[in-house]
Amino acid sequence: MVNQRPEIYMSPKPFSAVGVVEKPLSWFERLGNHTALRRILLLIALAIVWQVYATHLNNELLFPTFLATMQALVTGIVSGGLLGKAWTSISVLLIGYACGIALAAFLTVLAITTRLGTDILETLTAMFNPLPAIALLPLALIWFSLGEGSLVFVLIHSVLWAVALNTHSGFLSVSLTLRMVGRNYGLTGFAYVRSILIPAAFPSILSGLKMGWAFAWRTLIAAELVFGVSSGSGGLGWFIYQNKNLLEIPSVFAGLFMVIFIGLIVENFVFKVIEHATLRKWGMQT
Predict the structure, then answer these.
(1) Within a domain: residue 181?
(2) Does the N terminus or the C terminus of the chain have fewer Cβ atoms within 10 A?
(3) Best CA proximity match to 169, nearest among 208, 195, 113, 131
(4) How many structural domains is the chain composed of?
(5) pLDDT for 237-263, tens place per residue?
(6) How buried is residue 240: exposed, middle or buried, by Cβ count under 10 Å (0-12/13-18/19+)?
């Protein structure tokens, strides 16, 4: 004889017995949920630490205060042509960055579609990726003389290999299922890369673009510090170098501050916009 399990009946409990299911956040918790506000507060804290330390050190030639740096920054913007020098650097950077991305795209598409292209990309990256772009400055001066061409050359080198390596790694990590879908649709060559590989590998591509931008920005400032004048005018690196020679240390810090500020703008606005419009929209990132 099979014993049957007795039926169990549960009576509903009042909501008061359950406790608090949802409660409003405090104003402090609501403010803490804003990423932009948290970062602004962090920057303010760093500025306060900077001001306190520089005031305690009391040596403007060694480490100027934050207020003195901001004063030099405003003076450089209003009367020192700092914005013009920043635009000179950015315009050269955009040319080198675009050329580097174009060459990286060509090498990567060639590598993913042909066996010879794979050998070319892997060989060239093994040879030139460990080579610092700044080490090519002497050759750039000989080949392209003093000017924009030399800067663009070293920028292409700094961008090309980072973007190509990340893009190629992203293409190789695309699942076999997606590859078979593309082949079943009859996609080949660039159409296959554009419709299947690029969307699936876009996280790696975007990482490569970020790395390429960071490498290019650092390389450009370093190159301008060495032979900064291009097309008759100097960029931010040249501004820093000139003020260092004049012992205008607050202006040197103002130039460095402008370099950091432009980097923050590009990272938190340009790349964040691309990230929200692609990765987060497609569900690839939370």
Answers:
(1) yes
(2) N
(3) 208
(4) 1
(5) 888 888 888 888 888 999 898 998 898
(6) buried
